[in-house]
Structure formats: structure tokens, C-alpha cells
Amino acid sequence: MIEIIPGDPASFMLGINAEPDTVHALKKELGLDVSKFERYYNWITGMFIGDFGVSYTYRVPVSELVMARIGVSVPLALYAIFLSTLIAIPIGIFSASNHGSFKDWSFMGFTQLGIAIPNFWFAMVLVLIFSIYLKWFSAGGIPGWDKGFLINLKALTLPAFALALPQASILARIMRSALIETLSQDYFRTARASGLTFFQAVEKHAFRNALIPVLTIIGLQFSFLIAGAIIIENVFFLPGIGRLIFQGIIQRDLIVVESVVMLLVFSVIIVNFLVDMAYLYVDPRLRVKK
Amino acid sequence: MKILKPLLTILLTGMLLSPLYAEKNSVVIGMQLEPPNLDPTGGAAAAIDEVVYSNVYEGLTRFRADGSVTPGLAKSWTVSEDGLVYTFKLQENVKFHNGNDFDASDVKFSIDRARDENSTNAQKGLFKSISSVDVVNSSVVKITLSNPNGGFIRNLAWGDAIILDPETVDSAASEPNGTGPFKFSKWIKGDRVELVKNNDYWGEAIYLEKASFKFISDPTAAFAALMAGDVDAFPVYPAPETLAQFEADPNFNVIVGSTEGETILSTNNKSEKLKDVRIRKAIAHAINRQAIVDGAMFGFGTPIGTHFAPHHPDYVDLTSQSNYDPEKSKALLSEAGASAGLTLSLKLPPPSYARRGGEIIASQLREVGIETKIENLEWAQWLEQVFKGKDYDLTIVSHTEPMDIGIYGNPNYYFQYDSQEFRNLMDALNLETNNQERSKILQNAQKLIADDYVNGYLFQLAKTGVANSKLIGLWENSPTQANDLTGVSWSN
User: Fold this and answer.
1) Per-residue pLDDT tens for A2-48?
2) Fewest Cβ atoms nearer than 10 Å: which of A87, B39, B421, B430?
3) Which residue among B44, B173, B385 places its CB closest to the CB of A17?
4) Which positions ≥6 away from B343 have C-beta within 8 Å?
């Protein structure tokens, strides 16, 4: 379908001084002179053997482009999930245990703010404070994984924080309500009655039971972070998957767009599968065969 | 949970201690657009030349910062009496980066490839007048033209005319192999291209050991990257609204230069509504050029009255011929029978000069009673609808190729200006080799398109760059789109 939208990569590349026969020559070279159906057929059959074709504009295999971008997007998404979980779970537990108190309300107020603040704006504030004013971090970009682990992790810190803030806010609220639910259960009261302190009881009995909805949300967030980080990638000029799609659309490098979308579909399926597996881990009751 | 705390402490201290960027003989240049590939003979994208021109690749001749053309791989040349035979004496002991020797056969190969029938060179017109390229001996090449071409030496200085190694031509798009002072090192797609010094360079040694081109598309991010020191210079800086801040900061230099970009309100001369010259003239008088420069370009740019660069010696100032005069504009409209109101489509490509300028022009046209329907297009759509399909009334584009007045001689070009008189002038220009006569013809051509009000001539695009104040030797003007780093160094 995407192949049919107007505009063609050959005229995009050659610009406004090119002669018509030059555009034809380039189209031929790129394999764009065959019919749309034939191109679609070639692409589909190629994909089954792991061949996504060659990018029209970069002239390198799409798989090579995508692999390089995954090296940025996946670590960034994992880092953001790590940070958001790290922030969200303590807040969720704290708020739930102080349910209805002033502390609970103020924390929930903060998470509301975290959801309301657009993350690109938050990202710019981070850059302003930590890159321009304090000069602790660089304003963006990534040195490349061959330069060492820490230097790259450092480069991803601000973008990961910017991505994690709204995610952490959502997660904290989910954690809180799930925990409040389990705290009112009979088994929790029994646990307290048997002499466990409040936090022991939460750790041993309530936490795991509250995890199921939290895991669901983390799974959804991960898929979103892989593909949806495009604005943050722009603010920090990171070469991630989101920008690859964006550039592909602008330059009419449609073979890249199609292939990345297919890969994203696969990755969502895989993440959902992993989340399902994680349910089984946290809740032994689900392991019983029906 | 217990292991988390020490782990985090180690990570955080490690990150804070690792250095930012601390090399002194290297430079990081910021660019807004990433090149699609690195072969200047296979695409029109300015970003390709901005990375490789005279850094990695060289041609027989080359542009200098002031717009003059000087010898490159050709040491010297002679032209026959009739202006048809150019004999080039080549530099000797020149090697490509992969170690192959450069000689006359490479020149023949590269130029024949560019003018070949199946060539994908975006500026094939540059080579049109060539009838044959012959190798005389390993260091002498003879190029024969079918008709005299006074601009031929200049044509050879374009990035599209660089000399390639025939052996590596297939990988030129991703791994350029040239003769220049920098060697290609690596390209992290979406992020940066890295070049390193070529120690076997035939010409004058350069100062820099390493140069990186970093691609930052977002204007705000470009600002942050300069401020944080991630890039040392942004030669074509995309956020003019923050230039005042850089001007006030002693750590930065703001570099304002000229470009070859004539920004015009391109007009579809075959459109039913616009084929009457009086209407086009009315539009020209309805436009307040300085207001557009101030409003859309933050004051950077020079108003023009024809399609020619004001810094060129042959430029004729014709701005008074389309001065801002709304009353005259209204009178012309009623004379042409269009005072009852005219609605025109105004299709705008993505650059900010077009989007911001378009809104200002729309309001200026409304003052005289012309309504416009603004439509924002992506580049690919613009090329399809406006450039190829000619389905538009007005659009705004900057024509950045040097000396491109010749486009008015093509009646099928997107503004569809069909004038035998102009074509005669261009034919005469191509045959003329006397410089004085050439100037005269060029001036007449400028006057002719101004008289015919082919397009609304708006302003010459300025080049506004920002650089670390210790970085010296960057090009101020841009006679061709390039970031020539051969003369760049750090002062102490």
C-alpha cells in the first residue's frame, strides 16, 4: 500500500536540475521501473528468506540499516524501562501504604504532572540544565558501542530519563491501585495478624499479586518505546528506529519503511509473548493446566 | 535490591568521570540534513557535497571560498583558438586513498561516465557540450567540445564533476575513495560521518587530523549541541532566531555570508490565471521584499529583482522594477480585468524560508485583493505535484545552483516560461568566449526575465553559520554547497 503514495525516490534524489532521462536511468538502476505488484511480490518473497531488500537512498541492505538502529533503540528502551520501574515501584508501594494520606495525594499529584508534561519539553529542560548549564552530559548523539559501554550509557541517560518520566508516572499509579486492591484482601490481613510487619507482608504476599497489571503495562510501554521514541530521538539526535522510519517516509525510501514496520509488528508479538511468560513466573496459579 | 545501590553508584560516577570530547586537532561540524549517500556524481542532495567536496574528492578544477575557480587535479590547461579543445596538464604523483595511482585514464573514465547515456548524474547538463575525452599520455588529457562553452572550466569545478577511481566506483555511494586531503573513515548512518587525514596527500598538508560531520535535524537540538560543545561549528545554522544570543557570546562567532540561492516566488506562466504578464507584474509590486527578509529570515538576506546572485560581478540591480507599490499593483489588476478577485494556489515545500515566507506573501497579496490557498507539501510531494506535474499557481523555492539562469531557457521547466528571445540569448552565451561579451549577454538575460516578470524574485538566501570562536578557516560564503575543511585550524 505504501508504495502507491505519490512521490518517487529517484526524483527526490536528483533534485530540480536533473534531466528527465537521468531520472529514468536512476529508476532503472534502483529497480523502480517494474510494476508495483512485481515489486511487492519481490519484497514479500525476499522477506521469507531474511532479505529485506536494498534501501533506495542509502543503497545498502535494509537489514544493515535496521540492525545499526536497533543498537540504539533497544538499549534506550531497556534503559528507560529500567529507570521507570526503579522510580515507579517504590512510589507505588509508598503511596499505597499511605493510602488516602497527604503523602499519597502529593505523590499522586506529581505523577499526574509527570503524565501531563510533554516528554520532549521535559527533554529540552534536561538538556538546558545538564548539558548547557552544568555541562555534565553532552546534548545528544551517541559515540557508538565500540567506544566502550559506560560512555554510551552516559549518552543515553538524559533521553532515557525523558522517556521514563511519563512512563514511570503511569506505572506508579498502576502499582498503587493494584497494591491497594491486594492490601484489602483477607490473606494480607492474615499475614499481618501472623506477626509480619507491614513491609514484610507487602514484600512476601502483596507485591507479587499486584504485579500482573504492572507487567502488562511494562510490556505495552516497551513496544511504545522502541517505535514511539521518535520525538526524543530528534531532540537528542539519536539514530534510532523512529528516525529511520521518519527519514524513510520523507525521502520516499519506502522499502525501508515497510520493512521496519514489519519488524515492529514482530517485536510487539515477541514482547507480548515474553510478558505472558512473565505472568507464569510471578503467578504460579497460571501454570496449572486446564 | 541490596546490590542495586552500589551498582548505581559505580555507574553514575563512571559516567560523570568519562570525558566529554577533548581532542584538539579534530573538528565536529554540524549539518541539518544527512546525505543519502556519499557519491556526488549520483545525486543532487547538497548534503553530499557538504561532506565530501574538496575534502575527500577533487575535480580537475575547484571553487575557492570567494567563488573563484582555481586548478585542482589539473595543474594547468590551454584552450585552442576556436575555444573547442581544452588540454589539461594533470598533477603527478597523486594517489587515490586505496593506493591506486591517479592518471589521465581516470579523468577520461569519470567524465565519460558522467555524460554517458545511462548516467545518473544530477547535473548532466554540465557535460553536454563535450564531444570527446582523449588520453594524450598519463598526465595529459584533451577534452574536445562540440561548440565553444565559456563556462566550461567553471563547470568542471562542480562536485558533480569530481574524479573517481574506476575500480571502486561501485562502492562510491557508501565508501568514497578519492584523492583529497581527507580519507573516509566511517559512517554511522543517522548520526555522523568521520574523516581522517590523508598522510599521502599530494597537495599542501592540512592541519586537522580528524573531522566529523554530525547530523542534527532539529533546530532546537542544533542550538543545544553548539551550546554544550558537542559540535564546533554549524556552517548552515537552522535556527536563525537564536543567532542574536550567539552574537552576544564571546565563545562563538556568527558567520554571515552569501549563497548562490535565489529565493523566488515561482509562478506557473502557463496557468490560466497567470499567463497575463500584467497580473504577474501586479504580484511583483504587491510584495514587500524587505518585510519577508525581516519576517521570515530574521533580517538575513538581500532583496533581488531578477534571478541572479547580487555578489556576482555581472549582477544588475533590478529591484526597483518590482518595488513595493500596492496601489500600482491594484491598478494593474483592474487593467487586466482581475480586480474582482483572484484566488491562487500557493504550494509550500518544507524549508522555513518557504513556510514562513509563504504566510507573509499571502497576507501581502491579500492587501491588493489576491486570495491565496496555502498548501504545505513535503519535498517528495512537491517534486511530484509542482515540479513534475506543474499543478500549481505559486510556490516558493530557493534555487541554490550557481549561475543557473539557464533554467529559464527550458520551456518545460516547472515555471513554464516560453521565450524564444531568451533561448537565443542563452545560445549566444554558450558560443561566446569573450568575457566582456558574456557579461553583456548575462545582463540582458537578467533584464529580459525581469521585464517578463517570470517569477516573483524575492531575496538571495544568506548563509548564517555559527562556529566556536577559536575555529578559523571556515568558508564564509558558499559559492557551491561545501564545507571545505582544508584550511581549517584551531587558534590558541
Assistant:
1) 555 666 667 766 666 666 667 777 777 666 666 767 777 777 777 67
2) B421
3) B44
4) B370, B371, B372, B373
What lies within 8 Å, CB to CB, of B219 at 6+ separation is B32, B238, B239
Partner residue opposite A25 with nearest CB, options B119, B225, B380 = B119
Scan for cell 517570470, then name that residue.
B454
Residue B339: its pLDDT value, please?
Answer: 67
Closest alpha carbon to A227 in A276, A193, A260: A260
* Closest CA relative to residue A142, chosen from A240, A65, A238: A238
The DSSP annotation for B124-182 comes to GGGGTTEEEEEEEETTEEEEEESS--TTHHHHTTSGGG----GGGGGGTTTS---SSSE
Residue in chain B nearest A125 by alpha carbon: B224
Closest partner CB to A14 (pick from B43, B189, B217)? B43
- State the 10-residue block means of pLDDT for chain B, 492 residues long: 59 54 77 87 84 94 88 94 92 94 94 89 86 94 89 90 92 91 91 93 92 89 88 90 89 89 93 91 94 90 93 90 92 84 90 91 92 88 85 92 87 91 90 85 94 94 91 86 89 78
pLDDT number for residue B20: 47
Chain A positions touching B225 (Cβ under 8 A) are 138-141, 237
Residue in chain B lying closest to A23 (CA):
B120
By CA distance, what is A158's nearest residue in B?
B15
Q: Which residues of B touch A124 (CB under 8 A)?
A: 220, 224
Q: Which of B249, B280, B252 is nearest to B266 (CA)?
A: B280
Q: What is the pLDDT of residues A171-220, one digit of tens each?
A: 888 888 888 888 888 888 888 888 777 777 777 777 877 888 888 888 88
Q: What interface predicted TM-score (ipTM) does this complex get?
A: 0.72
What does the pLDDT read at residue A228?
A: 64
Domains and CATH numbers, chain A: 1-33 (no CATH), 69-242 (1.10.3720.10)
pLDDT of res. B220? 85
3 state DSSP class of B263: strand
User: CA of B228 to nearest chain A CA: how many angstroms apart?
Assistant: 5
Tell me phi and psi for residue A167, to 5 degrees: -65, -45
Dihedral angle sign, alpha carbons of residues B407, B411, B415, B418: positive
Cβ–Cβ gap B225/A151 under 8 Å: no
Report the DSSP beta bridge partners of residue B101.
B95
pTM of this structure? 0.79
For Cα atoms B331, B336, B338, give the angle at the middle one, nearest 5 degrees. Answer: 85
Alpha helices in B164-251 (DSSP H): 219-227, 243-248
Residue B151's identity, in one-letter code, is G
Distances (CA, A) of B272 to B122, B138, B191, B277: 31, 58, 47, 11
- pLDDT score at B17: 52
Residue A74 CB-density burial (10 A; 0-12 exposed, 13-18 middle, 19+ buried): middle
